[in-house]
Design a protein that fits this description.
heterotrimer, A alpha+beta, B alpha/beta, C alpha+beta, B: alpha/beta, Amidase signature (AS) enzymes, eleven-stranded mixed beta sheet, 12 helices, 38% helix, C: alpha+beta, Arc Repressor Mutant, subunit A, nine-stranded mixed beta sheet, three-stranded antiparallel beta sheet, 15 helices
Chain lengths: 93, 395, 477
């Protein structure tokens, strides 16, 4: 991975590193990926991936509607709002 | 430098402190981040009414490192806690030691509370995954994080754990009540294994501390065997891969649009996003989320992320094998007794010790420099074991 | 060189559930902005998703109606991208193990029947709505639609013309509406469609460069967009004036053109991964069979049954356009009402009231049993035809029982011959001028008397009978 690819990754994640930080991040990545390589010592060809530690299934709720929160409360912490809407700069279509 | 980001001056009942990843509707919750400074949740985390209904009061919100990704809280937007020698001191343990809280609830994904307890003379339990509701946590690593309990004694931990543990319909991963209750009937721990390779990287004083705790276990009739193991260290990169990806995804909601920090410097939505996140997140958070995004890319998904998911199964199976011969596994909680300077690698390096229990959701008790990892639902048995070492103090 | 067009569709359909897919907010269209929102669906931290059982069943129903194989273990994944209508900056969807796969839908074309393959159907949450405010030059965000349950139906590239696409979409709509999966209303956005299109020399087996078109809000827009885009592709290949690139394009229906969206993210950037907060859904035989047992007949089979039972072809097809109408009719027939009477009432009085109340046929608020009771009351003369309309209006509004409402509001007609006779006599007595006019040959004068009598009787009289009695009374004078 190079600085250019890192910059692309930053854009994708909506953060910007300084050049110095980017250098650090490249080293950080190299070391993390190198450590992950160590796992290749274990053959997992026939191992099933484990997303959940406990194998629960069918955790479902009834299709019931509840209203608990008011619009006013939800918008209280909004950086910018108007007329019951959250507000952002104009998006180009 | 403050233990609490908000302190309740009027506590009713025994005071329990909450780390600042636990959402409260009466106090702001910032998760150690500039991004959420002053954020008011509209609801309480499930653990909060459980405590209140049992007669406990909320002591305040404890300062944590940003999303608790760090070593001992040093990345908090509100500043790190240090002693007079400049050593980092976790605010989690300080809430009990200097602010007199009876206990502190701590979110545990990267082991910060285990290090804090092990270095401060307190006791801590990270319970079995999904036995305490995660409803109302500022979620970082949903597949493995848990709310743990820190207190002066093992009994104190058990007392609070029995209050906060329980099934919750609002958390789709929450275990059924009968499975959670099975923790009360776990077999006592008699024989433990110490993994020798984990003892190699410790500082001299840490080695001493760990050996003293092992001696105390032995003195209390616990059989200890030293074994070597090459699989458990692989939990570190695997857990870091899973947790970075989940962190990246979970904190992508913090974008300056709906609540929290918004940059003053933007002309369009893209600048709003990027400048808000760049200005509000610390470097460790940024690096971790970028790594988490990269492991999910088309090229890396199978060889890295999917591999880590498979490693989780390998590690769980490996623990099961170990538990066929031993009641628990003992690892150091961290590599040193004191930390002054940390960088963006320190927390990862220290996760060598804490990742094995995190990735498999196993219960861990931490005290006196060590962690004792038990099989699932052995939470109270672990605390009983710790209690033995407390001698007269715990009676 | 002759070209052929290769089209595959991604159709999004909002499911008819009461609540959202992962939280308990209401999921119905039409609330005020941000009134159906909670911390979970506006992207605040702390809440965890809990899956709606009804949504799983609607997803299974859709899969079964489109002849798919249902994945007995189905899971959820997270798809990440930044956009203000996506409050968590990720969408929970199904990437690895969708609810249904490998189906097919039969359509009629100019060359006879054709089967369109369904690659997969997956369940996911909808995004919010953005309103562009010219006054402040900002964009306003409404999260009511966020997390409303959707299915996305991905077809195989088996379609070759706008006409086939329309036939396919109409067939999907009929099937999904009939099975109660969705109301599929283009105008409200509860059915939406993205078009993947490429062209190639006729007979070629290789696929050309593919573009994806979004933002067609009606069937006619889809038709126009396909014709435009196919022509653009062919022109680009033949004339070489434009290089085709794989991209997403936005259809502008007013200008009648498609435009490149130049979106920065590509499919590989979505960073899909399995959602650790949602457990797998495992569909055992019992659950599968229970859902299958609720499937309706196909609309055309149902229409055939209605025709056999004596309904006109046109009426039968009108009925099967709405599952609700069929349900009401079937229940009325079940309760003993003759099928033709039930159909007449549904398409006359019921539809008239629906129009007045601005309800769609799907929202017809009376049930079949009650409708059958009302029809029986009219047939046996207990309630007059004009009063029956009043009773039905009350049934629409308040869900009243027809016989109770009629009794409590003096709308029963039976056993009041004496009263009718008395009123007729009274009206004739009190209007000597009208009587004189009538005698002088003005037939209309009788109608005025009729109107007054009807009013005094509160309409509780058969009109024909009243007319006869008035003429009889006048004849006496």
């Amino acid at each position: 991975m190079d600085a250019c690819q890192m910059q692309r990754l930053e854009q994708l994640n909506r953060v910007a590193l300084t050049e110095e930080e980017r250098e650090k991040a490249l080293a950080f990545f190299a070391s993390r990926f190198a450590d992950m390589e160590k796992c290749n010592a274990v053959d997992t060809e026939n191992t099933e991936r484990m997303v959940h530690i406990f194998a629960l299934e069918n955790v479902l709720r009834a299709d019931e509607k509840k209203k608990i929160f008011s619009r006013e409360d939800l918008l209280k912490g909004a950086p910018e709002q108007t007329d019951g809407y959250w507000q952002v700069p104009r998006l180009l279509e | 430098m403050a233990v609490f980001t908000v302190k309740n001056e009027n506590v009713q009942g025994k005071a329990v402190a909450l780390d600042d990843l636990i959402l409260t509707k009466d106090y702001p919750t910032a998760a150690g981040s500039k991004m959420l400074e002053g954020f008011m949740s509209l609801f309480d985390a499930e653990v909060v009414p459980r405590l209140q209904n049992a007669g406990y009061g909320i002591a305040g919100k404890v300062n944590v490192g940003e999303f608790s990704l760090d070593v001992l809280g040093e990345t908090s937007h509100f500043g790190a806690n240090r002693d007079q020698n400049g050593n980092l001191v976790s605010a989690l343990s300080e809430s009990i030691k200097t602010e007199n809280a009876f206990a502190c609830l701590c979110t545990d994904s990267n082991g910060t509370p285990r290090r804090a307890a092990a270095l401060s003379g307190l006791c801590y339990i990270k319970p079995t995954y999904a036995t305490v509701s995660r409803y109302g946590l500022v979620a970082c690593v949903c597949s493995g994080e848990t709310v743990g309990v820190m207190a002066k004694t093992a009994d104190g931990c058990a007392e609070i754990l029995s209050v906060i543990a329980g099934h919750d319909d609002k958390d789709g991963t929450s275990l059924p009540q009968n499975m959670i209750d099975s923790a009360k009937n776990a077999d006592p721990i008699c024989k433990v294994a110490v993994i020798s390779s984990f003892m190699n990287g410790l500082s001299a004083d840490m080695s001493e501390k760990v050996n003293a705790s092992l001696a105390s276990l032995r003195a209390n009739g616990i059989e200890i065997e030293e074994i070597d193991d090459s699989v458990l260290p692989l939990a570190q990169p695997a857990w870091n891969t899973l947790s970075a990806a989940e962190l990246c995804n979970n904190i992508s909601r913090f974008d300056g649009v709906k609540y929290g920090y918004r940059t003053a410097n933007y002309k369009n939505i893209e600048e709003l996003y990027t400048n808000s996140r760049t200005e509000a997140f610390g470097l460790l958070t940024k690096m971790q989320l970028l790594y988490g995004s990269e492991v999910l890319s088309t090229e890396n998904y199978m060889p890295v992320y999917d591999k880590a998911l498979r490693m989780r199964r390998v590690l769980c199976a490996h623990f099961s094998e170990l538990f066929a011969s031993y009641d628990a596994i003992v690892l150091p909680a961290c590599s040193q007794t004191a930390y002054v300077e940390t960088d963006t690698d320190t927390a990862y390096n220290e996760s060598l010790y804490t990742a094995p229990a995190s990735i498999c959701g196993l219960p861990v008790a931490a005290f006196g420099g060590i962690q004792i990892i038990g099989k699932a639902f052995s939470d109270y048995a672990l605390l009983s074991l710790v209690k033995k070492t407390e001698g007269g103090a715990a009676q | 060189m002759k070209f052929e067009t290769v089209i595959g569709l991604e159709v999004h359909v909002e499911m008819s559930a009461n609540s959202k897919i992962f939280c308990s907010c209401g999921a119905k269209y039409g609330a005020e902005q941000n009134e159906c929102v909670c911390p979970a669906c506006c992207g605040m931290p702390g809440m965890l998703p809990v899956m709606n059982r009804r949504v799983v069943e609607l997803g299974m129903t859709a899969g079964m109606m489109l002849n798919c194989r249902i994945n007995r273990t189905t899971t959820f994944d997270k798809k990440s991208y930044y956009y203000p209508d996506l409050p968590a900056s990720y969408q929970t969807t199904q990437w690895f193990a969708p609810i249904a796969v490998d189906g097919k839908v039969k359509i009629e074309t100019d060359n006879g029947e054709k089967f369109i393959g369904i690659k997969q159907i997956h369940m996911e949450e909808d995004a919010g709505k953005l309103v562009h405010d010219d006054w402040t030059d900002t964009t306003l965000v409404d999260f009511n639609r966020t997390s409303v349950p959707l299915i996305e139906i991905v077809s195989r590239p088996d379609l070759s013309s706008a006409k086939e696409v329309i036939a396919y979409l109409e067939r999907l709509r009929a099937l999904l509406r009939f099975a109660g999966v969705s109301d599929c209303r283009w105008e409200m956005g509860t059915m939406r469609c993205d078009v993947n299109l490429s062209v190639r020399p006729e007979g070629s087996t290789e696929l050309g460069v593919r573009t994806e078109m979004k933002n067609m809000n009606s069937l006619s827009a889809i038709e126009k967009a396909i014709e435009y885009e196919a022509a653009r592709h062919i022109d680009a290949i033949v004339s070489g004036t434009e290089e085709l690139v794989q991209e997403t394009r936005r259809w502008d229906d007013i200008k009648g053109k498609s435009y490149s969206m130049r979106s920065k993210e590509t499919a590989g950037d979505y960073r899909y991964f399995p959602d650790p907060t949602l457990m797998p859904i495992v569909i055992d035989d019992a659950w599968y069979d229970a859902v299958q047992a609720t499937l309706p007949l196909l609309p055309e089979d149902k229409a055939a049954l209605y025709m056999e039972a004596g309904l006109e072809e046109k009426t039968a097809w009108q009925l099967v356009a709405s599952r609700r109408l069929c349900d009401v009719l079937d229940a009325a027939v079940e309760a003993g009402c003759p099928i033709k009477d039930a159909a007449n009432w549904i398409f006359s009085d019921c539809m008239k009231l629906c129009n007045r109340e601005k309800l769609t046929a799907d929202e017809l608020p009376v049930n079949g049993q009650d409708l059958a009771k009302l029809i029986a009351l009219v047939k046996n003369g207990t309630v007059t035809r004009p009063n029956a309309a009043r009773v039905l209006a009350a049934m629409f509004k308040d869900g009243v029982q027809p016989e109770t409402f009629a009794a409590e509001n003096g709308l029963l007609a039976g056993g009041n011959d004496d009263r009718v006779d008395a009123v007729v006599k009274q009206v004739v007595d009190e209007n000597p001028k009208a009587v004189a006019d009538f005698k002088a040959g003005k037939e209309k004068a009788a109608m005025a008397l009729f109107g007054q009598a009807m009013k005094l009787l509160n309409k509780n009289c058969d009109p024909q009978q009243l007319k006869e009695k008035i003429f009889a009374e006048l004849a006496k004078r």
